[in-house]
Design a protein that fits this description.
Chain lengths: ~110, ~120
């Protein structure tokens, strides 16, 4: 079984400041890693994914994440946030074979303040 | 718009009533997933279909829940004898096992969800 832990339920940050949202996972098998964003009253949108290869993954809206296998982490970063980045962010994993359902963390609420 | 659509977007019902939700996936996608998201939590997997075959059901899917995908296109999720604990956002997602960037990489595209409130 897989599990995902998002260490911060809320992250307040000022506009134009950098931000890091933390994610740790646990799995006995190989996994793919994802970050999704959810705006109020909307579905989930994929920000970025790690499948293999380079451990630094770039996504949409200026976000990037780094896969660290030894620490089983996949932290999300952005060098300069905007008010429009205010949303809920979910880290997720899925097996690379067989069962393909996503296992999500409990989410991190990013609140960007002016 | 060729994204995943869900209907209705909101449903308020009384305890004990039956409700049915519909999901229309992206047209060329042959995998369809249902998830449930309660307040303050991440989505939890309920079930998934490949074409019309229901391949897996979570332990969260009690006997009161049933999902179908009769022709491998749209899907319905029915909850019988609703309980207050069923109040949640029900999310549908789809993916493809063919084509570039499809299910080979398990990229699932999500619909806007159906928010269920059981009074």
């Amino acid at each position: 079984a897989q599990s995902v832990t998002q260490l911060d339920s809320q992250v307040p940050v000022f506009e134009e400041a950098p931000v890091e949202l933390r994610c740790n996972y646990s799995s006995s098998v190989s996994v793919y890693l994802f970050w999704y964003v959810q705006y109020p009253n909307q579905g989930l949108q994929l920000l970025l994914k790690y499948l293999s290869g380079s451990t630094l993954v770039k996504g949409i809206n200026g976000f990037e994440a780094e896969f660290n296998k030894s620490q089983t982490s996949f932290h999300l970063r952005k060098p300069s946030v905007h008010i429009s980045d205010t949303a809920e962010y979910f880290c997720a994993v899925s097996r690379t074979t067989g069962r393909r359902a996503l296992t999500f963390g409990s989410g991190t609420r990013l609140q960007v303040q002016p | 718009d060729t994204g995943v659509s869900q209907d209705p977007r909101h449903k308020i019902t009384k305890r004990g009533q039956n409700v049915t939700f519909r999901c229309d996936p992206i047209s060329e996608h042959n995998r369809l997933y249902w998830y449930r998201q309660t307040l303050g939590q991440g989505p939890e997997f309920l079930t998934y279909f490949q074409n019309e075959a229901q391949l897996e059901k979570s332990r969260l899917l009690s006997d009161r829940f049933s999902a179908e995908r009769p022709k491998g296109s749209f899907s319905t999720l029915e909850i019988q004898r609703t309980e207050q604990g069923d109040s949640a956002m029900y999310l549908c997602a789809s993916s493809s096992i063919t084509g570039t960037g499809g299910d080979l990489y398990n990229e699932q595209f999500f619909g806007p969800g159906t928010r269920l409130t059981v009074l």
